[in-house]
Amino acid sequence: MSAVRTVEGDVPGGLLGVCDAHDHLFFGSPRLPGQELRSRSAALAELAAFAAQGGGTVVQWTPYGLGRRAADLPALSRESGVRIVAATGLHQAVHYDDATLAGLRGRLAEVFVAELTEGIGTSGVRAGLIKVAGGFHALDAHARWTMTAAAEAHHATGAPIAVHLELGTGALDVLDLLCGELGAPPHRVVLGHLNRSPDLTVHREAAASGCYLAFDGPSRTHHATDWRMPDAVRALAEAGHGDRLLLGGDTTTAAARSVNGGPGMPYLLRRVRPRLAVELGEEAVRRILTDNPGRAFAVEWPGPVGP
């Protein structure tokens, strides 16, 4: 049976409601010192603010080793009323120390599969997607290693693969590797951060493959997000790819949280949703926020649907 694996069990994709398809409740990296997302109370406040705007599900893309706090996620989901999907996977090498990466050599796919099927650490919380990352206009050896492991884990479990595109670049190289060389079905791949590189030709070519395209990280004007993103989304919809679009917030720093004065999770629904409705119409935006995530993150799991 097709289902989305949330932190409290598998649910049909149609029950996700309005979905933030890429965000972070907990996240910590040496690349962002002093901006770690570690506070449980702040995470709950963000979820509550998202729910108050009509939000139903948050997909957390925080991968292995970056402070996921998986054990806290089920209670946060229950307390807020927002479904949460957790991730396995591995980010770019710069986010880890050498010892961590060395400890994963030769067993990365095994770790991904275990976190998808058995649980993250001792939490018992099973991941629902595999998050990996490309580089700036290129795929280095680390990216190829992690994507190879992600494809292996996908073939073993059916889990979707979500890809951080560095500043929105390298989309076609990622698809060539994951879907060409490694055989992952395009409709099981989600490309993130397309808003950061508003190349409409690349967007259309990527969408034509059948993958999902995520426009995430609103209110980052230095990434040309807010003012170019609606045009990019409209162009894809007009080209017949409206059923492949996803929207997310990608809150990665404490300063970006709404409880700290930033846009945070509610911004996606408070400002981005009505802005896109002007371009696409209310019904098209509703489908992007509800129907599309239910398909993008739902897979045929080998085991029975349930907690």
From TrEMBL:
Residues annotated as binding Zn(2+) 2 are: K131, H164, H193
Q: Name one GO molecular function term.
A: zinc ion binding
The protein's required cofactor(s) are namely:
a divalent metal cation
Keyword Metal-binding present in the record's keywords: the answer is yes
Q: Entry cofactor note text?
A: Binds 2 divalent metal cations per subunit.
According to the record, the signal peptide region is none
Q: Which residues carry this modification: N6-carboxylysine?
A: K131
UniProt keyword list? Hydrolase, Metal-binding
Cross-referenced SUPFAM superfamilies: Metallo-dependent hydrolases (SSF51556)
Q: Does the keyword DNA repair apply?
A: no
Give any Pfam family that matches. Answer: PTE
Where, in this chain's numbering, is Zn(2+) 1 bound?
A: H22, H24, K131, D250
| Gene3D superfamilies in the cross-refs | Metal-dependent hydrolases
Give the family, as the similarity comment puts it. Answer: Belongs to the metallo-dependent hydrolases superfamily. Phosphotriesterase family.
Any idea what this protein is called? Phosphotriesterase
Organism per entry: Streptomyces griseorubiginosus
